[in-house]
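User: what does the whole thing look like in 3D?
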Amino acid sequence: MKKIVEIALGIVTSVGGFLEIGSIATAAQAGADFSFQLIWTILLGGLCIIFLVEQAGRFSAVSGRTIPDAIRERFGFNYFAFLYIVLALVSLLVLAAEIGGVCIALELATGIHFQWWTVPAAFVIWLVMWKGTFGVIEKGVSLLGLVTLCFVVGAYVINPPVGQVLRGALPSLPQHDSAHYWFVAVSILGATISPYLYFFYSSGAIEDEWNEGHVGINRIIATGGMTFGSVISVAVLVLAAMIFAPQGVKVEHYTQLPQLLVPVFGYWGYWLLVASVGIACLGAALEITLEIAYFTAQGFGWNWSENQRPRDEARFAAAYTLTIILAALITITGIDPLKITIFSMALTAATLPVSIVPFLFLMNDYSYVRVYRNGWFSNAVVIAIISIAFVLAVVSIPLQIFGGS
Amino acid sequence: MFALNGLPIGRLEEIRTEINKGHCFVSEFLVGSYAMLERLAAWRIGRALLRVFRAKRKEGYRIRWDQLDLSDPRHLRLLCDVEELMPLREEQYPT
Amino acid sequence: MNLVRDCLDKQIDDRFKRRMGRVDGIVLEVEPGRPPRVAYIELGVKTLMNRLSSRLGNAIAHLLESRHIESAPYRVPWVKIKVGLNEVRADVEAEKTPALEWELWLRKKVIGRIPGA
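Assistant: Here's the predicted 3D structure for the full assembly of 617 residues, as structure tokens:
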């Protein structure tokens, strides 16, 4: 029974961070612009992230090390520094987008412009980090995040054409506006295969004191959690396809997002959307902040843990404080959070190879993973994901220029 | 790393040491793609990748401590001919 | 033992198993006619930046010195080091070494002064 509860909680918490402003915005855009055609990108991204998250969790459970630890140890400081700079810059932008997402939710709730909410939102994020433990952050916010199930309920209630939904699960070529189609596809993949997800999961395994006995649970949690998150993303796309696409409405402003749920739930749809966006973005903001701080502390060998008092890990605490301040400074400029979101997703896609290539080596390193090394199938999957990542890296910025909104 | 004639022979990837009377002494310097795999502890996957890409580059060398001039750490130079170096071979690594 | 694979960039824990940093550098002592001897491991931002570029390392050192901050790396004699599988243990007490200088300074001057720390 205890194991079932642990697995169920693990699945719910691993959804947290998956659904955030990036996946909501890109799925909504995809549904509005291309109806059901881009469901396959969410499924493809979901499949990739399942493998990466499972391997990250397995690595940490068996080795007692996080992925960033091992990247510094195996690949040396030069590679780590390059990866760190790239990831920190991209993650800061994503974090700015998530803080923006929280602020958007508050603007939708109160009518007060999102810029005014930047400082309070950033302060709340910092306060949760300062006073909360890993368990509170991981489980508390994720349980609240169950409100995002309203998208799944809404997608069911709106009664989409099943045949078209299933056809959308298969890869297809665009019927119009090719550059924009592939740009949205790349953005969805960037939103789904987010490095912070598997790095955070790896650190979380250490925080939760996982060991070899958790290898099986890890597989279930990674698969269940990422599948759950993918289903919610698909639901957002389906809603956008049913509501925006028939009217030729393009998703260009966050104030359009409540339209995803109002036709289904009426008045409560508005508040469900506000709650979903606010909580999902808060959860993602906490995860990304932690991921940047973890990456910094682990890479430089500092003391780190969200379960310790800030004074016992002063550099770690300073790292996440500075991270939140820098990201908030971006948000407070008033740049449209939707634009930051779409741009940061494309940038994430462009930088994927540097964070995924190490998996191929680390998951075959006997001194870390021992008998839990990757078999030929897992290695083949990682190589396939690396290939996809390299394609994304090459095409994402040109597509941003020619196909971005 | 440079040969006697000034031509580069590869990058220093790894340093093997031995313990003697409580002190740690350098025994060999390793250069080349196999040396890099040893440094990354990536022999299994790395060899497979090298085979797939049919890497024609030299696998590398084992350079004894007395075959290398360490007076300028940024410009390491051999003290012998390249032919005198022991090559790094696939047989030396576990399968 | 392989110096790069087994020692360099590894997490160092002190004698009480507390994290004190990473092996940022390894110092070899070279004497004519004798094999180079591993003398110290180094921790410090200057050592780290030197690995990226010596110009960067010198610039960082200059910046620190201009603010009267010690820039010389902290060296732990090899005799106090024990290298295990993916871990390095130093027979020192981390808080009494320069390795945690920044940690202690931040604790005392910044983080420790914020309520709830």
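In plain terms: The CA atoms of residues 14 and 93 of chain C lie 6 Å apart. The mean pLDDT of chain C is 92.
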